[in-house]
Structures are given as structure tokens and as C-alpha cells.
Write a structure and sequence with these properties.
binds flavin-adenine dinucleotide, single chain, alpha+beta
Amino acid sequence: MPYKAPVRDYQFLLNDVLNIAQYSNLKGFQDASPDVVQAILEEGAKFTEEVVAPLNAPGDKEGCVLHADHSVTAPKGYKEAYLQMVEAGWPALGGDPEYGGQGLPHVVATAYSEMLTGASSAFAMYPGLTDGAVAALSVGGTDELKALYLPKLIAGEWSGTMNLTEPHCGTDLGLLRSKAVPDSDGTYKITGQKIWISAGEHDFTSNICHLVLARIEGAPAGVKGISLFLVPKFIPDANGNPGERNSLHCAGLEHKMGIHGNSTCVMIYEDAKGWLLGNAHEGLKIMFYMMNNARLGVGLQGLAIGHASHVAAVEFAKDRLQGRALTGPKSPGKPADSILVHPDVRRMLLESRALLEGGRGFLTWVALQADLAKHAEDEATREKANDFLSLLTPVVKAYLTEKGLKVTQDSMQVHGGSGFTEHFPASQYMRDIRITLIYEGTNGVQALDLVGRKLPSKGGRAVMAYFAEIDAYVADHEAGSAATFVKGLKDTKARLMDGTLWLMQNGMGNPDAAAAGSLDYLCLFGLTALAYSWAQQAAAAQAAIDAGSTDPFYADKLKVGRVFLERILPEAEAHLQKMKAGSEALFALEDDRF
Ligand SMILES: Cc1cc2nc3c(=O)[nH]c(=O)nc-3n(C[C@H](O)[C@H](O)[C@H](O)COP(=O)(O)OP(=O)(O)OC[C@H]3O[C@@H](n4cnc5c(N)ncnc54)[C@H](O)[C@@H]3O)c2cc1C
């Protein structure tokens, strides 16, 4: 079943909705002329559809293999496709030009990332983790480390990993035991065991750069005593090439439910040479640059797998003949109508599409904030964009993966029994997407981050700015051509405001109550963010129609948007009511009665 990249949707979002041409005075955007963006979308689609997507199903079946010498081989074809990707310069798209990157806007690179991930999420994780390592190293590395490592990482010649988790230490990083002992040359000897390290070992880059959290001997207990180290598989020689082998290895591969093409490794460090990133005991601060990058990447993964599964479901539904339309046969010459005639099948397909197109609009808007936070000319705009990025990162991660799972589940349902067999891709998508709700901080933990850290941060500055942003949009567009969408946005934002006030009034006195409602609150936030994007998308589509465009894409947008308004947005009230129920019912049952 072929993968189809969402090229047209990205053309629309980048040009008609966000109008990225308006930022052509900003760094990075100068080079993102409409024809360059068009070429990236088209070539990105070609590469991901033709080279990467065909590896997805065989990679799932074959998985990765650990050899006696601790080396790991990825599924057949991965290495060749990876090298082809590096050769074509894809990993460097959004990289810093100072270190060999192409410096294109993050919002454009995001479009390519979705295509790559949709084509094969297991494959896309290899360059995805490297992106995160680049983010952390760019902030925490010395000039010397940056000069040595960044060009190779940005080009994709070397890859990166993130090492937080230990057998007894997952969400609670304060329990971390890996240790670091200062060496006489200013480096550290790292010892410990890390588990579930994605892309920890593989066969397609000449070096792998592990970013490892460890505790320097004598450091305080808890999260305050954690430092971050760069621990390369091969220690670079005087010319910057991979030299002596470092004392670390992959001791096992996890057998897991999905993403079989990505190596999930047990990593052993035995006095491995590591370089401190940032200050001692402040490693988490730097690691958060990698983690935030990864959280946005995982939200994107939820969307991308959801899209891929939806494409497969649409293809299946068009071909599958079962039953007759309730209003009389649609294809009387055939033994039965296609299942597309059934309202329940249409419900699943169209709710999926409304979530995907709204989610993509939201993701793209957030990606643009990352660009503005870096490159906007005035400090106030940079600060506001940075606030939005920080506030919305847990929403992107958790809401897009929750809804990605719903889409993937409905896509399987559309397939009927065929979806449960391995003859169709629905089952792989179902297995692959499930991890996105768990790793990079579970969705429950993302919701706590939103409620406990992001909302109160700086006296609530970010959330107030977000409300003001929406209020301003509503005021400007209430009487416009997409008024029903603006009303949907206004009503949902009012519920979000209500929920926020409830948290302010109840959260301090009863933290369990705030925590019990936090995922519902996050979903209410996600719905508001999608409503905002749908209002913008509907206005842009209507404007194109009013200007005389006969491209059916625009009329379709409004039809799909209507599904969002009528069938998705009403969930906002249920989320509000559930969060206001507090935690009493959850604690009424005694622990020993579970
Ligand atoms: C395939 C795969 C790849 C991974 N890749 C990496 C990687 O590359 N690098 C890496 O470092 N790690 C990686 N991980 C680890 C992953 O990030 C963790 O599994 C995840 O963060 C959750 O930690 P845990 O599994 O220990 O769950 P636990 O922390 O044991 O949580 C169990 C349950 O309790 C809940 N919970 C725990 N603490 C709290 C709390 N304070 N408040 C509310 N609820 C709580 C959780 O939400 C969850 O539902 C990977 C895991 C897998 C399965």
C-alpha cells in the first residue's frame, strides 16, 4: 500500500495560511523562496515515497540484529537509504550554516520531517535523535567541541543518541546512578548502564555520539546533581576522524511491540571517555534542549504515522465492496457498493482527516514559533515566540500522539478484519504508533508539565499571551468569511480560560485535583490550538475561493473543517467537566482494594 506525502497540505499551510514569504527579511527565510520551498516539498516527497517508504514493512519484519562483537545491523536497505539521504543533504536542511547546515527555516524542515517519519517512523528516528543531539551540543558544547562534532552531526555523517533511562530510573531522573569520575586531562570516565536507547548502535554512520546523563562523584542526590556528557563511540583523532574505540558497547536489543527497524539498545559504559556539556550538576538544563526537540519530534511522529495509516485506510475503503448504501445502491452494476457509502466508515475517515489537517496546522504554527524565537528582529517577538514554543511543546507531544493513535485505530477499523492481519499495513502502524504516547515523558507526565510548570512559569506570562493572541484573532475575524470557525475558536478558548481559572483556584490547595484533570486540560488546550488553526485554514481557503480559485482543494478544506467543528470540537465541554470533577473519585477506593 503506497505512502503518499502530504505535499499539497504543506503548500497550503506554508503559503496560504502562514504566508512564510512575509518573513523574507529574517535569517533563513531569505533562502526559502516559494520555488525553493516547492522544490523541497516535491523532492522530499519523491525521496520519502520512493526510497524510504518501501523499507517500512520489510524493516518491521526483519528488525535489527545484534552480533557477537556488539555491533548492530539495521534492516536491509536502511544503510543505503540513509547514505543516499546524507548524500542529498536532507539531514542538513535546517542546520546552522556556521557548521555546514543549509539554514532553512525550521518550519520548512518540519514538512520534510513529517514526510520522512510517515514513510518509516523507525527509519526516521535515526536522524531525528541526531537533531536533538545537535540542539543540546549547540548550547552546552565548548567552541572546540562544537567545531569538531557539529558539522559531522548536521551532515548526518555521525549520529547522536539520548541516554537518560536506567533500569530503575525512568520518569524519575533523580534516581539516576550512572557515575562520572574526573580524569586528569579534563575529561570524565563514565560508568553505568542505560536501557532503551534508541539508535544506540547501528551500521550506517562512522561514529555515534551518545549524550549521557551521569552523576559526578560526590554530587548531590536528586536531579540537582546530574551532569551531561558527550561520549563518542570512537574518540576523534587529531584530524577529527573516528579514532580509538571508546569503552562502551551495546549489550542487548529490546524485543518490542513496534518500530522494529530502530535499534533500542542496552548500553554499557565502562570508564568511557566523556566530555562535560554545560556546567557540572546542571546537565538537565542542557539535556532539556534535546528533550524538547525530541518531544516536538514525537508529536510529529504521532501525526505522521496517523497520516500514513489514514492514506492506507482511504485506499482500502475505495476498493472494498460490502453492503449497499442505506439510501439505495450507489454502484448497481457491481455486487456491492464500496464501504465509503456507509456513514460510520465516513465518520472514521473524515474525523481522522479533520484531526490530521488541524494537527498539521498546529504543528506548523508551533514550528514557525521556533523560527521566530531565534530570528525575529525585535526582542519582544522573540520572547513571545519562545514562550509559545515552551508552553505548547507538551501539547504538541501529547495531543498529537493521543489523536494520532485515535486516527491509526480508526484506520485499522476501516480495514475490518484485514486490518488485524499482517497483509495490510494497518497493524504495523498500530504497533509503531503506540510508543509515541509513552516515550519522551509519558503523556500523563506531559500534562503535569503543562499544568505544574508551563502555566505558572513567569507568572503565567505565556498562557496569558496565548489567550491574547487568540482574542486578537477572534476580534479581527469574527465578522469575516470564516465566522463559524471563529465562533468555534472563541467558544473553545472560553472553556480553556474557564479550566485555567479552575486550576488557579484549586491547584495550589489540592495538587491531586489539578493533576487528576491535567490530561483533560491538555486535551482542551489541544482542541483550542486545532480550532485556531482550523479558523486560519478556513479563512485562507475561503479567501482563495473568493479570489476565483476553482481548485477543489479549497472547497474540500471547508468541508473537512466542518467535520472538525461539528464532530471533534464538542469534546471540549466533556474535557472541561471531567477536569472539574477533581480527584475525589480517584482516591475514594483504598489502595488495598485495587
Ligand atoms: C522503544 C523505546 C525507546 C526509548 N528510547 C529512549 C531513548 O532513546 N533514550 C532514553 O533515555 N529513554 C528512552 N526510552 C525510555 C522512555 O523515555 C521511558 O520509557 C519513559 O520516559 C517512561 O519511563 P518508564 O518506562 O520508566 O515508566 P515509569 O516512569 O515507570 O512510569 C510508569 C507509569 O507511571 C506514571 N508515572 C511515573 N511517574 C509519575 C509521576 N511523577 N506522575 C504521574 N505519573 C507518573 C507514568 O506516566 C507511567 O504511566 C525508550 C523507551 C522505549 C520503550
